Amino acid sequence: MERPLPAPAGLAADRYAGLSLAAWQKFGTLALIVLAAVLPFALSRYHVFELTMVMIYAIAVLGLNILTGYNGQISLGHGGFFAAGAYTAAILMHHYGVPYWATLPPAAVICFALGVLFGLPALRFEGPYLALVTLAMALATPQLLKYFDTWTGGQQGINLVKPMPPPALVELGLDRDRWLYYVAFVALLIAIRVAANLLHGRTGRALIAIRDQPIAAAAMGIHTARYKTLAFGTSTLFTGVAGALAAIVIGYVSPEGYSLFLSVSFLVGSAIGGIATIGGAIVGGLFIQFVPNLANDISDAAPWAIYGLAMLLFMYAMPRGVVGSLGPLIARLTQRIRAG
Distances from the Cα of 161 to the Cαs of 45, 84, 99, 245, 319, in angstroms? Predict the structure, then answer.
């Protein structure tokens, strides 16, 4: 009987327990999705709400990563686009009785249009000058929301009724907080898939080329203005959808909830998670949601000192963000396992 030929060394090194490295990655991703799907039933309603907000913030940070991390445009105004998406959903639900799920597409379209309109004049600015232009957006948003009080409710804001799950799921014991968790979870998965398809293709390569070598990119025939505007619009689309989801989940919008600190928090979350990564958006969402609360628990007298110290420790230990720093480390470890 003939013996089977041994597998090539490179092929054998790429397999563990009979599975390829790509298969293990897919298996790990599926395991994480399953874990996230069953997690709400092991937590209280308050903790489920916190994790829902983590996913919403992750979508917003993912949008900022597309603009800043992959295209090199710094924005301090994404809190304003977050507010635009939130108020779009709130106005449609409160004034026109639109179902909550039907408010997401209009929020996406409106915020994309605002991003494109805002991105066109911003093409004339770069670096800190662009940051100052977007800073104006963050500063003006709360005042504009108070001015158009007929639609926005002014200082009082708009109260919304949190949506209930479908009747069939209510009979199974699913409450509204866990239902909204799954709504945000599905939205996050869709956002990650769309971002991955966008950034790992031709558009992503063009954005990175413009970020790293704008002159060379233009010489190669890349339409820099078009791609920069597209990056701005796509980024604000993600952030607007996140804002709409936040309004639905919280059940309330007011101008005070969209201050400059929210825009800064998005930028901080992007840097902590990994400013040019997709997975870093989830880490950024965790940081935005939990670190300020932990800082308050540690010190009522100086919570922002604790918050700033946490930022410094993260950036000192992982200057490229959590995912940006751990990614190369895991890659080197994988290479050593292959070599061994």
Answer: 17, 19, 11, 13, 42
In degrees, to the nearest 5, what angle opens at C-alpha 123 toward C-alphas 282 and 226?
A: 75
119: closest CA among 133, 105, 140?
133
Predicted confidence at residue 333, as pLDDT, reads 74
Give dist(CA 56, CA 82) in Å, integer: 10
Domain boundaries of the chain, sorted by first residue: 39-161+170-339
Fold of 39-161+170-339: ABC transporter involved in vitamin B12 uptake, BtuC (1.10.3470)
Angle formed at CA 219 by CA 217 and CA 225, multiple of 5 degrees: 55
Q: Is pTM, for the whole model, over 0.85?
A: yes
- At residue 26, the pLDDT reads 81
Q: How many CA atoms lie within 13 A of 208 on its CB side?
A: 11
* Cα–Cα distance for residue pair 23/17, rounded to 1 Å: 11
Cβ atoms within 10 Å, residue 56: 29
Q: Which of 140, 116, 327 is nearest to 240 (CA)?
A: 116
Over residues 235-258, the pLDDT tens digits come to 999 999 999 999 999 999 999 999
